Amino acid sequence: MNDFLNQKKQFVQDTYYMEKTIQLAKKGKYTTAPNPNVGCIIVHKKKIVGIGWHYKSGENHAEVNAINMAGKLSKNGTAYISLEPCNHFGKTPPCCNLIIKSGIKRVVIAMLDPDPKMSGKSVKYLKKHGIQVTVGILLKKSQNINLGYLKRINHGIPWIQLKMAISLDGKIAMKNGESQWITSKDARQDTHRLRALSSAILSTSSTILNDNPKLTVRCNMNKKCQKKYIQPKRIIIDSQNRVQPNHQIIQEKISEIWLIRLYHDKKIWPTHVKQIILPKYKKYINLKKLFQFLGKEKINTVWVECGTNLFSNMIKLHLIDELILYVAPKMLGHLAKPLFFNTQELDLNTINTFSFTSIKSIGSDIRIKLKPQCKNLIY
Fold first, then answer.
1. What local confidence, expressed as pLDDT, does residue 279 receive?
2. In the structure, what pLDDT confidence band is assigned to residue 226 with cuts at 50, 70 and 90?
3. Which candidate, 202, 214, 189, places its Cα nearest to that of 301?
4. I want to staple 137 with a disulfide (CB 3.0 to 4.6 A). Which of 18, 55, 170, 202 is the partner?
5. pTM higher than the cut 0.85
């Protein structure tokens, strides 16, 4: 009975500290890509003596920051880490060696790192050096803060979010193409915050020609938006080479632009613009090959903003992981442009089905997050 009570007490304690560790990991959510979000807490005699999180690729890992803060108090302490510590040389030295050197006697890990370089190897290494290791505390919560990293490592493609602003009657623009602005300023600011969480923003040449956007993050730095973030890469599907150097997105040099094309042109482009040639499907860019390419380029998450055609194709091809709709309390009428277009006759057994994961008021609008019921078929 005493053993059971002690185990229960230990589990409660581990859960408490791991919750704090995962909250720490979230502090790097705007800057860590392509690395995962990781937090670490050092506990000595039931007191937190060191905290750390990974801020940016190439900088100290969470464990290093926490151990540096704890100093000598790390000895005989417990380290709570949201992701398995590294055991190999990358841009920084192995964290396992520092953990062993610090004198930490126990390590609690929320989840193993699926990267083949680790994937349980660090746990074996720590145990070999006499350190107690517990794995699996708050596993799901740790996974949820690294959806893009996990999908890229496990399946070779990014986590794909598809966003659209629509009216109550499911329209995205007036008949003449006018769409600025269907939703409120609050909804647009929320979009910028979510853009900032992404590795890349994906759109099409049609959107560039119609709206001439910058596709950058312009955040007002409120409490929901970190003081620093990395501008996402901007990726434009341009199979007919319609994007020109004078477009606003090209003039805005704040981040890289990848023009996804079927063939090069002979124009002189600024250094932040790359033409990337990919295979075609019929006359168009092969979307599956595109996302596989982005995975190889270590793009963790892709935020898609587009028109009806790409939106409809991504839905029909089951390419998305999350659908995000900003719904404005407006009616645009039956002549306005629809959200979804399908030339095939459908019935209730063949339609695309989603489940609601979140519904939230954003200013005068509603933001709805949905998850596809069917499995992503790209891998």
1. 85
2. very low
3. 202
4. 18
5. yes
Which amino acid, one-letter code, is at 320?
A: I
Average pLDDT score over residue span 105-132: 92
pLDDT band at residue 348, thresholds of 50, 70 and 90?
low
- Are the CB atoms for 84 and 113 separated by under 8 Å? yes
- What's the token pair of residue 376? 């992503």
Report which of residues 374 and 42 the model is more confident about. Answer: 42
Q: Annotated catalytic sites, by residue? A: 63
